[in-house]
From TrEMBL:
<keyword id="KW-0521">NADP</keyword>
<keyword id="KW-0456">Lyase</keyword>
<dbReference type="Pfam" id="PF16363">
    <property type="entry name" value="GDP_Man_Dehyd"/>
</dbReference>
<dbReference type="GO" id="GO:0042351">
    <property type="term" value="P:'de novo' GDP-L-fucose biosynthetic process"/>
</dbReference>
<comment type="function">
    <text>Catalyzes the conversion of GDP-D-mannose to GDP-4-dehydro-6-deoxy-D-mannose.</text>
</comment>
<dbReference type="InterPro" id="IPR036291">
    <property type="entry name" value="NAD(P)-bd_dom_sf"/>
</dbReference>
<dbReference type="InterPro" id="IPR016040">
    <property type="entry name" value="NAD(P)-bd_dom"/>
</dbReference>
<dbReference type="GO" id="GO:0070401">
    <property type="term" value="F:NADP+ binding"/>
</dbReference>
<dbReference type="InterPro" id="IPR006368">
    <property type="entry name" value="GDP_Man_deHydtase"/>
</dbReference>
<feature type="domain" description="NAD(P)-binding">
    <location>
        <begin position="5"/>
        <end position="326"/>
    </location>
</feature>
<comment type="similarity">
    <text>Belongs to the NAD(P)-dependent epimerase/dehydratase family. GDP-mannose 4,6-dehydratase subfamily.</text>
</comment>
<dbReference type="GO" id="GO:0008446">
    <property type="term" value="F:GDP-mannose 4,6-dehydratase activity"/>
</dbReference>
<protein>
    <recommendedName>
        <fullName>GDP-mannose 4,6-dehydratase</fullName>
        <ecNumber>4.2.1.47</ecNumber>
    </recommendedName>
</protein>
């Protein structure tokens, strides 16, 4: 039985990875920060199958302890301050976790079990102001946020430990990957949650920033398979993991409303752009400049050819299927949260269709 240590196990990626490894008969350890009450997050349904270890990426002693307890054969470093917008507000904390935290984890591996394999969660945000399209492993980096800069350090220190200490260390340069488990702070989940609440009369308007920003979106369940495949390959290397397609935020919004049964129409341009519900003429989407980034990343589009040819990895869930999965989950969640009186009131106002 192999053992694996996952940092960030209660998050979206950590939960899907834990499920995958458990299905392959791994002993799974999860690093969690000490709180007054442990929040199991997305692994609540499998918490009895995981051994949790208290630790923090900013505390190297706790990471050394985690390695000694788990004696992990594979370490997946998924923990991060992962909100791009927050990284401008908390640049030092972002650097301590997303940059120095990676070094702390690598040092713990080097000290306790240097033969362990290591996966680092890198990000397409490192490409930032893209130097070529599509982006691949050899594309020059140009991060446009403190988050992207910190992640770039983590990426390069992983490569450095691979070359300096012969540690089996890989970085997955993952493009945007979402799911129904994504936090509401992320734009995709913000959209599907808001559309569901608009559908059931609990929200009037969804406010967003740059509607023209283009992203390469896939489903997290597919992307964690790539993480595992990297550590099963005979040689450590870095891989771009992406769908190879790009879509605007506006396209995501369109599909979310479509699958919710609401037909919308766009009017205006720039900061004055709005989407109206064609049935009743109400504004349901508006642009709010406060959601603009200080330095915008306009286009991200990955080339996953290396991962496909070397690892045999494929993304199976399409963009359209991803949006449909997410909106259906939020529609069911919001509907089930309504009281009988709220449901009747919304139905009477023709906010929902039964």
């Amino acid at each position: 039985m192999k053992s694996a240590l996952i940092t960030g196990i209660t998050g979206q990626d950590g939960s899907y990875l834990a499920e995958l490894l458990l299905s392959k008969n791994y002993k799974v350890y999860g690093l969690v920060r000490r709180k007054s009450k442990l929040d199991f997050g997305n692994v609540e349904h499998i918490k009895d199958k995981i051994e949790f270890i208290y630790g923090d990426l900013t505390d190297q002693i706790s990471l050394i302890n985690a390695m000694r307890i788990s004696q992990a054969d594979e370490v997946y470093n998924l923990a991060a301050q992962s909100f791009v917008a927050t990284s401008w507000e908390q640049p030092i904390a972002t650097a301590n976790i997303d940059a120095l935290g990676v070094t702390n984890m690598l040092e713990a591996i080097r000290i306790v079990k240097p033969e362990a394999k290591f996966y680092q969660a890198s990000t397409s945000e490192m490409f930032g102001l893209v130097q070529e399209t599509p982006q691949k492993e050899t594309t020059p980096f140009y991060p446009r946020s403190p988050y992207g800069v910190a992640k770039l350090y983590g990426h390069w220190i992983t490569k450095n430990y691979r070359e300096s200490y012969n540690i089996f260390a890989c970085s997955g340069i993952l493009f945007n990957h979402e799911s129904e488990r994504r936090g509401k702070e992320f734009v995709t989940r913000k959209i599907t949650d808001a559309v569901a609440r608009i559908k059931y009369g609990l929200l009037d308007v969804l406010e967003l920033g740059n509607m023209d920003a283009k992203r390469d979106w896939g489903h997290a369940k597919d992307y964690v398979k790539a993480m595992w495949l990297m550590l099963q390959h005979e040689k450590p290397d870095d891989y771009v993991i992406a769908s190879g397609e790009t879509h605007t935020v506006r396209e995501f919004v369109n599909l979310a409303f479509k699958y919710a049964g609401i037909e919308i129409e766009w009017i205006g341009k720039g900061v004055n752009e709005k989407a109206i519900n064609k049935e009743n003429g109400k504004v349901v989407v508006a642009v709010n400049p406060k959601y603009f980034r200080p330095a915008e990343v306009e286009l991200l589009l990955g080339n996953p050819e290396k991962a496909r040819s070397v690892l045999g990895w494929l993304n199976e869930i399409t963009f359209e299927e991803l949006v449909k999965i997410m909106i259906n989950e939020d529609l069911n969640r919001v509907k089930n949260s309504l009281s009988y009186e709220e449901f009747i009131e919304a139905a009477a106002a023709k906010e929902i269709m039964e």
